[in-house]
Design brief:
The chain is mostly loops. Helix content is 9%, strand content 11%. Among the domains are: 49 residues, no CATH class; 58 residues, no CATH class.
Length: 247
Amino acid sequence: MDVPLFGFVEYDENANVDDGSCENIAIYGCMDSNYAEFNMFANIDDGSCENIAVYGCMDSNYAEFDENANLDDGSCENVVIYGCTDAAYVEYNEEANIDNGSCLHIAVFGCTDYNYFEFDSQANVDDGSCEELIVYGCTDAAYVEFNEEANIDNGTCLNIAVYGCVYIYAINYNPAANVDDGSCDFEIFGCTDPSAINYNADANVDNGSCDYEIIGCTDPSAINYIIQMLMLIMVLVIMRYLVVQIL
């Protein structure tokens, strides 16, 4: 194809008189849109069309990168993130979009904390299944060392539990007991005779302090006062004697 050597498309090399027909400035370039060199503004093809146009992402930093593309079509969207893209592996990276061969270990889900009852020695990915914390101790309630929170027996059950009063000053102290059951009773001294005027319902040890009501003459000048006093003394002596015998 002949290409004009001057600046207008309408240039006629045979003309020797300008008739004012020069209108369009010549723009040289590839005029075929199927080529990468295509120039949409060109109005004179200069034979520069060489490479068939291949549209695609031309930026290697994006996952959509096409190494064959020679015309960028705006398809670059996702920045490249290298990593393991297989969710079946421990190394899986949910943000990765290009696999880099880092997938090494098949994922085994389970409790990975050995401090928990549900611990799985085969697991390498914790799935939140750890629930019951291991507590070592005596798990037999028949023993003094029993721990109600323990769930794994560690052999610390040593002494059979004997329930009773463990306080040596209590009147029902049990020397064989090793677990107090709240049954201890302590000495309360006082008059334990309900017929006495100073009876103490809380007393459990009689201390000989009981006093009794005796009806009679209380006037020392009366002739029957002395007799009643003697009788009172005798009654008190007898009562004290009986109390001593009972104790």
